[in-house]
Amino acid sequence: MNKINLTTVLCLFTFGSSMAIAQNPLDFGSNIKTADPSAHVWADGKMYLYTSHDQECQQDFHMKDWHTFSSSDLVNWTDHGPSLSVDDLTWADDFAWAPDAAYKNGKYYLVFPAGTGFKDRVNPEKSTKWMGIGIAVSDSPTGPFKDAIGKPLWKKPYANDPSLFIDDDGKAYLYFHGMNHDYYVAEMADDLLSVKGDFIKMDMGGYEPKMEGPWVFKRNGIYYFTMPENNRVLTYYMAKSPTGPWKYKGVIMEEEANANNHHSIVEYKGHWILFYHRWLKTPGSACDKKQRHVAAEYIHFNEDGTIQKVERTDEGVGDFRKRVKAGALK
Ligand code: FUB
């Protein structure tokens, strides 16, 4: 190879390798529309995403099943198919909304909201919609999951968007969005099949906006309660205990297009990742409207533990392998 050709090749290689790889929304290998990602890293070292599943061109969130995806590099994903469907439930037939998962006592648990009835937007007094939270179990992280108690954990209050946090001492806490019960937490029994005692109303430091989709994680001994505030803007609180008192800290990600967001935050191979969903028009859709797709971004912390604001990007975590190899700073 002469000198000019070699230089050209080297330039192309250097430029090409520094170019970001478009990775959002995540490529699940099909046209599937997914939302509400809950991320977990289990003992096999893989990242697992538990998501809800929008029917193509859906309206009013009539959703029927939950999917599990796994990956080792956040770029190549395996769709393990529906891990549970409302058809498998005796007490609900619709609204397979935002799930979460946990590993405890050698088993994998899927905690999920589901419901019955319908929402009448024109005459709300005619609405019959009801939602509750169920718990299903499997020997495998990808299911199939089996409804473990054959009923919701409770019937009142109306509740959805469950999130299970298991602390280092093994205690399990269930956070949720509930009618007149936002910012309550339920401590779960050791087998995760029932709630222990009463719901606990958490001290949110006097700031309790409308919310849904809470998520709790722990980093360096500090607990974080994150949520889509007003169902749109991702914001957070910090505390020294999983039940508060919490201190409001502000915005993680601004709202986009007046649409709901739903998220989870997890550490993977030394990097903190925010999974969320975006409303996007994508090729191959059966209708000309925005639909939900799961995406991911890096998330960074300041010295004092506060979270830096995150922008939505096309690149997302497309360079994850490279970053892990380089041991890049968080
Ligand atoms: O996916 C249905 C609902 O939309 C979720 O439960 C909410 O968090 C919102 O994302």
Task: Describe what you observe in this structure.
- It is a single chain.
- This protein is mainly beta.
- It has a single domain (29-329), classed as Glycosyl hydrolase domain, family 43 (Tachylectin-2, Chain A, 5 Propeller).
- It is built from two helices and 19 strands.
- The chain has helices at residues 3-18, 320-326, and strands spanning 33-41, 47-54, 65-71, 77-85, 100-104, 107-116, 130-138, 146-147, 159-166, 172-178, 184-188, 195-201, 215-219, 222-229, 233-239, 247-253, 263-268, 271-280, 291-298.
- The strands form five sheets. Strands 1-2-3-4 form a four-stranded antiparallel beta sheet, with no helix packed on it.
- β3 and β4 (77-85) form a beta hairpin.
- The longest helix is centred in the first third of the chain and has 16 residues, at 3-18.
- The protein is globular and about 55 Å long.
Protein traits:
330 residues; mainly beta; Tachylectin-2, Chain A; four-stranded antiparallel beta sheet; globular; disordered N terminus; binds beta-L-arabinofuranose
> Strand pairing plus helix content: what structural class?
mainly beta
Radius of gyration of CA atoms, rounded to a whole number:
21 Å
What fraction of residues sit in β-strands? 35-45%
CATH class: Mainly Beta
Blueprint of the fold:
Blueprint: H1 3-18, E1 33-41, E2 47-54, E3 65-71, E4 77-85, E5 100-104, E6 107-116, E7 130-138, E8 146-147, E9 159-166, E10 172-178, E11 184-188, E12 195-201, E13 215-219, E14 222-229, E15 233-239, E16 247-253, E17 263-268, E18 271-280, E19 291-298, H2 320-326
Antiparallel strand pairs: 1-2, 2-3, 3-4, 5-6, 6-7, 7-8, 9-10, 10-11, 11-12, 13-14, 14-15, 15-16, 17-18, 18-19
Residues 35-36, 52, 61, 97-98, 160-161, 212-213, 260, 262 line the site of beta-L-arabinofuranose (FUB).
